[in-house]
């Protein structure tokens, strides 16, 4: 049975809707009704995530619900079973579940930060309001021995090396071998030199249960500031230095040609959280985040379900992110050298 096709039936949903639109990423399908969004995880194993069994997909949808309620309690509603009977597929129906969906309130697409920025409507006040949401979020986010270990230099090194291992298959296609080696050497050099700084951050309580995917498309500038779609599938990508989260959005602002906004965001956050050392880590984590985005867009370009035009855009995006990562590596290497 083609469940994706079946879930495009208007009668499958618990509330009336005039249409169902399907959006997909490399790890999920999202079914958009008039008022809600229903997410279904793809049965994929990418190494850093594994959704290959129904039990795993159910578990991670429940994790997604709990974790995203930290910043969007009124948006993330419930995890519902998908059942199959003679009447067809039903979301929230009775019987044996054949799949599970995460139900969310639909957010206005035109108010996503990237779309607001594309229209030239993003303001510094938007970023000030975002900082006012994020600073208390990180202050209240979970920490402690179990989470702190993800701030250890060895774990950070593992994350980077895992990312480079994935990027290797994209060398000579989406980035040159020279650029790949430049990115890898910068990360290794920084980690070797800055171990004392990283351990200091750990002792100061800067390692938290963060968001993990803080970029412009995951921020809605509606009546309030809504930050959604955090990493749920692997705590290693969510637990970490608050600076790594801040660097993600700062990098994305740079990527969209908004470097002044990027600097304002980082500076305002650092001042509001009394974290001037954040700037010593910014290029390092910006470089890492740009590499991750490049890798993910490269993976998206290889999806067989994606149209040729979408594949072309994803490949172009991947190359642009890798080029930006190279710029951060060069800036970071120069700045690091000036400390010694």
Your description of this structure?
With 340 residues, this protein is of the alpha+beta class. Helix content is 50%, strand content 15%. The protein is built from twelve helices and ten strands. Strand 1 (21-24) and strand 2 form a beta hairpin. The protein is globular, with a radius of gyration of 21 Å.
Summarize the structure.
With 340 residues, the chain is of the alpha+beta class.
Salient structural properties:
10 strands; 6-stranded antiparallel β-sheet; 15% strand; 50% helix; alpha+beta; 2 domains; two-stranded antiparallel ribbon
Q: How many strand elements? A: 10
The stretches of 5 or more residues where confidence is low (pLDDT under 50) are none
Spatial extent as radius of gyration:
21 Å
Strand content: 5-15%
Major β-sheet profile: 6 strands, antiparallel
Shape: globular
Q: Provide the CATH superfamily of the largest domain.
A: Aminoglycoside phosphotransferase (APH), C-terminal lobe
What is the fold's blueprint, element by element?
Layout (H helix, E strand, L loop, with lengths): L2 H4 L14 E4 L3 E5 L3 E6 L12 H15 L7 E10 L2 E4 L5 E9 L7 H6 L5 H17 L4 H4 L4 H15 L9 H17 L1 H9 L3 E3 L9 E3 L3 E3 L11 E3 H14 L3 H14 L5 H24 L6 H31 L2
Antiparallel strand pairs: 1-2, 2-3, 3-6, 4-5, 4-6, 7-10, 8-9
Helix pairs in contact: 4-10, 6-7, 6-11, 7-11, 7-12, 9-10, 9-11, 11-12
